[in-house]
Amino acid sequence: MKCGMSVASAVVLLAVASCSATAQVRVSAFDDYPEDNPRGNVHLGAPIVIPLNPTARAVHFGWGFNVGGGYNFTKNHGLVGELLWNGLSPTNEALAKIRTALNDPSVDMNVGLTALTGNYRYELRGKNLGTYFLGGGGLYYRHTHLSKQVTTGKNIECTRAWAWWGFTCTGGLVSENQTIASWGATSGGYNAGIGFTFRVGEPPYRFYAESRYHYAPNSRVNTQLINLTFGIRY
Quick check: 211 and 226 in contact, CB under 8 A? Predict the structure, then answer.
């Protein structure tokens, strides 16, 4: 509950900051500063990854990076292509249960989420402050990795944690004699978010802070998370 409240608070604060930035944007800003209105756009960021349920039942906070670029049709409308990578680790509870069931305390796990997306961005930008809204979709690839190859035993209760790491279940139990070291799945997904910018140095370079929701369905456990990203763009 505390984690959920913290996430909600962070998103609300970012939304308020964005609205504040919007209020300070003047319509004539682009006419006054044409050098701050490039045809191309590029960004590089480092997100803090906050899983949401059901993802949060298997993994906790992580980190990552994103890089992208695109074309601005006008001062307000643009397209942005992006490559995103998120790294996540199992929750202590999920890891403990799996280690106990396998009778192997040395097993460790991690997961990488890679996404290639195309997004539409609507932006209002003043001389120093700006705000934007963006959303789109693309391909999401989730790859789980165990530190060693493991084989499942009998009568192991199936939970979302087992499904997340690639194990199959039958009749509420983890299927016996599965040997797994890694597992991957690709699916379509979508994202939507809000952010604000602050000019640093000479235009068009800007610092940006952004909150974006990502969702990718999966036959076992859906991927749902929020990326709080900080970076540089123009």
Answer: yes
| List of residues 6+ apart from 109 with CB closer than 8 A | 89, 90, 95, 98, 144, 145, 146, 147, 165
pLDDT string in tens for the chain (234-residue length): 444 444 444 444 444 444 444 444 444 444 456 677 889 999 999 999 999 999 998 999 999 999 999 999 998 999 999 999 999 999 999 899 889 988 889 999 999 999 999 999 999 988 889 999 999 999 999 999 999 888 888 889 888 888 888 888 888 899 988 888 899 999 999 999 999 999 988 888 999 999 999 999 998 899 999 999 999 998
Question: Beta-carbon neighbour count of residue 216 at 10 Å?
Answer: 24
Comparing C-alpha atoms, which of 2, 5, 87, 9 is closest to residue 48?
87
Please say whether the beta carbons of 35 and 204 come within 8 A: yes
The CA-to-CA distance between both ends of the chain, in Å, stands at 37
What is the DSSP code (8-state) at residue 156?
P
Helices (H), 84-153: 92-102
